[in-house]
Amino acid sequence: MSAPETEYAFDKDLTVRLRELTRPAPTGLAKWRPSQLLGLAAIATIIGWLLVHTVNRFVDPALMRVTVTLGALGFWRFGWWFTHAVRAEHFARAIWPQKRAAASALWARGWRPRRLHIQMTTYFEEPAITKRVIGSILSQIRRERIPTTLYIGTGSAYDELIIRQFVETYAQDIPDDLAELVFIRQNQPGKRMAIGLILRAINRASVHPDDLVIFMDGDALYGGDVLEKTLSMFGADPELQALTTNEEVICYGPKWIANWLDMRFAQRRLAMQSHAVAGRVLTLTGRMSVFRAKHMTSERFIRTIEADHLDHWLWGRFRFLSGDDKSTWYHLLSRGAKMTYVPDATVYTIEVIKENGLERMIQNFRRWSGNMLRNGSRAIALGPRAMPFFIWWCLVDQRIAMWTMLVSPVMAVLAAFTTPEYLWSCLIWVIASRVLLCLFLYRYSRKVDLSWPFILYLNQVINASVKVYMIFHLSKQKWSNRGNQSAGGGAGLVARIQNATAKAQLYTAVAGFVLALATYAGIVQLPSL
């Protein structure tokens, strides 16, 4: 569904969607409609029929090496997936209830942070979204009575006027000593600079080290009791330095993109709960994360956000455009800071997709993958002693998985040159395995969507392909949200040489990858020396 054209229609539609999303999520079989159960039964029947009526080429002696490789990789990857699933379940059942009980009891006894600082950046956002976001913040400040300063980083008077008019109309009952609104007009382009200016303003306000600071985006809408559920965690755990929250998505765009985003957020919930068992997470999501204010007083922390960069042998020194959440995460990770995930505090992300859906998907992958690769390499370099081993290995696995994910489709295509029917066996395996994985993912979603098994495989292959491309083009960045910023696209002689070198590396690596698989499978015979 595309975004409504008028502000009134947009706001009305948001009301309907939020009413649905804020209802208690169904569990177990209650998620399944009769038509979906019939659809799952039909898929299982088709898979069973194919298994019975097609020749099993996996046991073909000529392709046994291919089968053994695919089987070993499948056992490893699915074993890793189920490890996350078990850890996530352990977190949900054994760890989180105790943490929530302790935090809620402390809040009920009257504990509150001395002061809350909220830093939010917005850039030509839809007025209906901006008003909803500001309204959700003010309503919780009004209810919880926490002294709060709301710092809003803007790029023009457009967003400031919308916010000011809304606050003057709907926040007259909030005393000035309870809530203060501060606009920070950035004088340099980019979200990172906007955040840096806000953090410097927070420091000028004589922030206390134990104050709390929320980092959030201008399209992140608070769900019920977000402040209570997040801030109380810091009172209950003095060692906790940062946390991030659960997210739901409200998507205005192609239906399949909405389904894909729903699936991505379900994957995120499973992974975040697994990581949180170790007292760390793999990102402090920019949509909504909370920090102890003592980190905001560090000039190094602020400069990491403003001017984070990488020194690369080919691309030289280049600054990061997006990924401020990865920069803050790396800063805390490198200092051994404890982090966690709060599954029952929900922030609603509002995505408005006006361009081509597939183009937006690939652009997001390039941004996410680039941020992950740029920060992952230096996080791995910290070593397993700087963090729990499981978290360190998750970072290593991200680097390995982008190649192993491509092994199965490449080997299946190579094997098809000698035995075309082998593709059928691989197709059956892909469908059956993704259906099984999605049965686990449905536990972390509000609804069942039978398109997920197919979207999941497409997601994995495209994501892995984009990561392989990005590993050789780390300086190339594009971010349409903040003035359509881009980097790494120079046209001079040096830039042309750099791009040609990166392309040569990419083609050589991919060709070597395919040749190695073909040789191992016995499909290509290398000449003997």
TrEMBL record:
Annotated GO MF terms: hyaluronan synthase activity
InterPro entries: Nucleotide-diphossugar_trans (IPR029044)
Top-level taxon: Bacteria
Pfam families (UniProt xref): Glyco_tranf_2_3 (PF13641)
Location, primary (coarse class): membrane
Localization annotation: Cell membrane
This protein's name: Glycosyltransferase
